[in-house]
Amino acid sequence: DAGVTQSPTHLIKTRGQQVTLRCSPKSGHDTVSWYQQALGQGPQFIFQYYEEEERQRGNFPDRFSGHQFPNYSSELNVNALLLGDSALYLCASSGLYRGLGEKLFFGSGTQLSVL
Amino acid sequence: GENVEQHPSTLSVQEGDSAVIKCTYSDSASNYFPWYKQELGKRPQLIIDIRSNVGEKKDQRIAVTLNKTAKHFSLHITETQPEDSAVYFCAASRGRDDKIIFGKGTRLHILP
């Protein structure tokens, strides 16, 4: 049973560039949430996707956007990168709408460095 | 908006002693409270969770208590072991499809 997988594991970009991060949820899960974790901080909620739609959004600017595909995998896109976007980006899946509850299972994350 | 405060930010306990981490939440509609453990360089993993209709829950050496009136909940680890060293995050949610909001974390050091 594959857990949550994310790619790439590390990424280095420069200010102003755009980045796309990818996530495959745990088998049987249908909901994907994205979190940003700055060094020494707790995960901050970016948004949640279900049925290919953004269902909830945290306090992040429009530069952060996402997508969910019919196979439940998801992408996080960040435009016009700022130095402050450097962080670990975590994807978490749950099987809420399949009766599996709201427990989040996290991927290992993508470490994004903006220079 | 929703806010989860966690303290202490760092905690050092002697191996074999107990550790307690405390959290408060602002949204009175919150009814789901998970705790996650994140070891260095690894993903956060759920260790225990509690719902608002339960005041306490235990799983071996780990227990969580909830005081809805005061809007605070705590994680208790007894008989601490070296492998308990990690960062622990509390979180809160209204449950169902609501987003889960995390505290800033507590770095727990187990001293030999």
Description:
In chain A, 0% of the residues lie in helices and 50% in strands. Chain A is mainly beta. In chain A, strand 7 and strand 8 form a beta hairpin. In chain A, 38% of the residues are buried. The radius of gyration of chain B is 13 Å and the shape is globular. The model of chain B has no long low-confidence stretch (mean pLDDT 94). In chain B, the strands form two sheets. In chain B, strands 2, 4, 5, 9, 10 and 11 form a six-stranded mixed β-sheet that branches. Chain B has a five-stranded antiparallel β-sheet with strand order 1-3-8-7-6, with no helix packed on it. By secondary structure, chain B is mostly beta strands. In chain B, strand 4 and strand 5 form a beta hairpin. Chains A and B meet through strand 4, strand 5 and strand 10 of A and strand 4, strand 5 and strand 10 of B.
User: Radius of gyration of chain B in whole Å, from Cα?
Assistant: 13 Å
* Beta strands of chain A, count: 11
Distance between the ends of chain B:
41 Å
What oligomeric state best describes the polypeptide chains here? heterodimer
Structural class of chain A: mainly beta
Average pLDDT of chain B:
94
Characterize the biggest β-sheet of chain A.
7 strands, mixed
Structural class of chain B: mainly beta
Provide the gyration radius of chain A in Å: 13 Å
Helix run count of chain A? 0
* Helical content of chain B (DSSP H or I, runs of 4+): under 10%
Return the string of H and E elements of chain A.
Answer: EEEEEEEEEEE
Low-confidence stretches of chain B: none
User: Total number of β-strand segments of chain B?
Assistant: 11
